[in-house]
Amino acid sequence: MPVWFVRGLRRGVVTTRYPARPDSSAASLPTPPAFRPRELTCELVDRMIAVCPGPALRRSDKTLVFDAGACTACGWCARVAPGAVASSGEFELAATDRSALVKTIPILGEQQ
Amino acid sequence: MTAVEPRAPGGIREQLVRTLADLGRLRAQDGGVITIRIPAGALEQATHAAAGTPGVRLADMFAADGDNTVLRLVWAYEADEPGYVITETEIDGEQYPPLSDIAPAAFVEECEIYEQFGIRPAGGKPLNRLMLPPHAATELPTLGHEPSRPPEEVHAPHTVGGQAFEFPFGPVRQVGVESLYYGLVTSGEEVVDLYLFTWHKHRGVEWRLRGKAVPEAIFLAERAEGLSAVAVGWAFAAAAEAALGVTPPPAAARTRAVALELERLYNHAAATAALCQATGLSVGQAAAEIALERLLRLNASSFGHRYLFGVVEPGGVGRAPDADVLRRELPGAYGELRRVADALLSTNSFVDRLEACGILTAEQARRLGLVGPVGRATGLATDARLAVAAGPYADHPVNVITAVSGDVFGRFQVMLGEAAESVRLITQFLDEGTGADRTLVPSRAGTGLGWAESSRGEVLAWVALDGAGRITRARLRPGSARNWRGFDDACRSQNVFTDIPIIEASFWLTAAGMAR
């Protein structure tokens, strides 16, 4: 019987750790955007929506609605608003409910 | 398995150009590709002449809208110095000669052109629905005039002749396999007929490219077939570069070539895993998927994207590879694949399922214009990497791997040979130097053809730009769009039901590439 199996039974751990070890390339991979509310303006958000190739972004008055489930991490929103958007570095997008992937971000920046 | 050495220059190109120019008028030479304008009245004769020239095949056919619809045929000449010649013909009215009667490879494009532009071959042959879903409506408009009648649905009757019946399979399939519908006509065990519905995944990529500037368009182009992102992106970029008269810097061209060979490696590893799954070898599948995962992680650590998106940009590349990482980790990742392959090749229960399964002959491959490992496994040495006068593949010629059996085993052997060849080429490109340079892409009018050799075979792209450098028509033709037309022939070749997943894995095509 494999040693790891016996050790796992003794410790009560029956699966491997996740992730087993950090992925060294993770930092350079494209990930969905993280928004800085104080840097966002309605005009900037509208420009981001215009370049988004999918339906991941929309605006509801002074709120940005971001659907991480529809985001392909293309980085185009960060290109038009580099000061207001950064790569989140977040890979773990699994959720038990589809609506949990939709986030609302207040638009707190001053209009120019 | 044999390796075909690069071929010496010869005169097929001159013969083809002379024959076509006698029937029309030499119009342009865009980026080394000659375009000949053929009058509508001479189109049938020109097609006969080109299709009848030894070493010449119809590589693509597409239409574009103007005052009248213009039909373009891309002919590839392959017997000596490979390359392409385009004919363009203005079609006045709604009909043109039935070209697939002369070059059977044209039938799929005849269907597509009817759907998108409303013109059809004379003679009234039924044209199948190929691209646009029946419910497409305004969400996915046609590229040109709508057809006067909707395309035919090729549903076979569910009971055929009292003996055979149709077994519907898909479009929703297991795990992550793409949406695709098989109509399998069977007498119980033997495959009598097979047809495909590929339109479930149509995204209107060519329609979406209209009006876009080249730098923003490549984002969509490389997603037309995500598993060939580098190849389709390179073909599209090359078409735009030919149209605009720019050449990428040599180091950037070598970067593209490194990415293209990495793409080939991971796709061949994925096909190996799929073959194991199809033959019920779960240990072999897991081992091949370990090799696949190592190759994808190598892509991520060297180029910053597991599927190599965003590497190719018009005029050059957006990223350079981490050469140290590639040199250090490629031998191990490839060694993993080689270890799996060696084990599989000595496993009778695997090899026996592959041999004499899904056979295509060289004649079928030639007639249908099949490309990539599917064509090369029949003995055809078709490879778009040979069709270059300069660049990385001219400096480091590829040894084209072929087989003669035409079956699944032949395709598997070609893939393994190509994986080894990719590792050799990557090493040479890295030694010569790679970089992330770009040549500035101007905004002006032009037309151009580009090509690249994906793991699935030749990818072609053609673009027309207006004076502001915006796309008026872009044609993308991934290798999958070519090779699906050989799939039903392969499935009918004395095979039984359970062979179909094996044949599909050996073709390793995408529904997206067909339905783009």
Name some characteristics of this structure.
heterodimer; A: 112 residues; alpha+beta; Alpha-Beta Plaits; three-stranded antiparallel β-sheet; two-stranded antiparallel sheet; 5 strands; B: alpha+beta; Beta Polymerase, domain 2; five-stranded mixed β-sheet; four-stranded antiparallel β-sheet; 18 strands; 19% strand
Describe the protein's architecture and organization.
The complex is a heterodimer of chains A (112) and B (516). Chain A is α+β, with helices and mostly antiparallel strands. Chain A has helices spanning 3-11, 42-51, 76-80; strands spanning 33-35, 57-60, 63-67, 85-87, 102-106. Chain A has one domain (23-106): Alpha-Beta Plaits. Chain A is built from 3 helices and 5 strands, in the order αβαββαββ. In chain A, a hairpin with a 2-residue loop joins strand 2 and strand 3 (63-67). The longest helix of chain A has 10 residues, at 42-51. The mean pLDDT of chain A is 87. Chain B has a domain at 2-121: NADH:ubiquinone oxidoreductase Nqo5 subunit (Beta Polymerase, domain 2, 2-Layer Sandwich). In chain B, the strands form 6 sheets. Chain B has a 5-stranded mixed β-sheet with strand order 2-3-6-5-4. In chain B, strands 9-10-11-12 form a 4-stranded antiparallel β-sheet. Chain B has a 3-stranded antiparallel β-sheet with strand order 16-17-18. In chain B, helix 7 (250-278) runs antiparallel to helix 16, helix 8 packs antiparallel against helix 9 and helix 9 (323-345) runs antiparallel to helix 14. The longest helix of chain B is centred in the middle third of the chain and has 29 residues, at 250-278. The two termini of chain B are 33 Å apart. The interface between A and B is small, with 9 and 10 residues.
